[in-house]
Amino acid sequence: MKRVLFFGIFDPDYARSRVLREGFEAHGYTVEMCRVDPRTHRGARKYWVLFQKGRVRRKERFDYVLVLFPGHTVVWLARLLFGKRIIFDVFVSLYDSNVSDRMRYHPWSLRALYDLFFDHLSCALAGTVLVDTEAHRRYFVARRLASPKKTLIVPVGASQVWFEAGAVSARAREPVTVGFYGSYIPLHGVQTIVRAAALLRDAPVRFELIGAGQEYTSVQKVAHDVGATNIVFTPRVSRDELIEKMRVADICLGIFGETRKASRVVPNKVYECAALGKPIVTADTPAVRAFFSDNELVLVPQDDSTKLAEAISALVINTTERRLLAAAVRKRMLACYSPIQ
């Protein structure tokens, strides 16, 4: 029997964790978990509890041991327990996310140096490092966080539930609904979406922005200031509710931020809406062009609300184009980016 152990402080319901599990299971592996919920065991205690659980599992035979994201601070523990064969799904750089993208603290602060230390340590200790895009691989290699020989690209993809939900076909109706969901971090570029919505406030278009997070308050203020009266702000919802909302949306949105990290990622929302078979508008970046083509997504410049508004307006009046995009991007997902691939 083929077995794989997922190790760490990860959330098993997080999109990345779920896709990896489904992928292994689709290829005949039994996936077992050795994890600690950091919300239950806080501070240093989570490492001790995880170590105790890991001591039991180290006696068992596994084909692979994966440290799942976010695992930067527990890779050393996995290495101690299971040796250098461990695989680390680094996914993102802590330093890049917290300092360069979210700007939570100064680049030379102690917290920034803490992030940088664990970026280096975790990648150095892992036998194999997983990243989600070629652009991210180049980032880690250029900064000597990981060697090219031990770095593998595993696209984010989408869980099977998104494939199975099935989209509502493009319809000529008013208003046309444009859906977005996210945690309002800078790379999402939600302010760009809001400004685009304001440009379309007299058009038969309704925007629904789902979620909350870092820039939620400032985004609402921008919406008020620019007169984006065609936006509905919806708090976080369950995964099933989210799938249903995006399933019935006419157009779905990806990310539009101008941060460097935004140019290196293809977010789960793009893959998930593509799996549904929806027409998608997102930023034109090297990362997204490595996985999708012009006839599958509508690509616009980063942080350009005018171009975004123009792209949405064109799709609003062209139902046929929406159907063609939806069919093409779902076909790509089925062929290349489902968990069974």
Q: Tally the helices: what do you get?
A: 14
The CATH architecture of the largest domain can be named as: 3-Layer(aba) Sandwich
The biggest beta sheet reads: 6 strands, parallel
Q: What distance separates the N and C termini?
A: 20 Å
Please tell me what the overall shape is: globular
Strand order across the biggest sheet?
2-1-3-4-5-6
Please provide the ordered H/E string of secondary-structure elements: EHEHEHEHHEHEHEHEHEHEHEHEHH
CATH superfamily of the largest domain: Glycogen Phosphorylase B
The proportion of residues in beta strands is 15-25%
Total domain units: 2
Helix content: 40-55%
| Protein structure class | alpha/beta
What is the highest CATH level, the class of the largest domain?
Answer: Alpha Beta
Using only C-alpha atoms, the radius of gyration works out to 21 Å
Mean pLDDT, rounded to whole units?
94
Which fold name corresponds to the CATH topology of the largest domain?
Answer: Rossmann fold
Q: Low-confidence parts lasting 5 or more residues at pLDDT below 50?
A: none
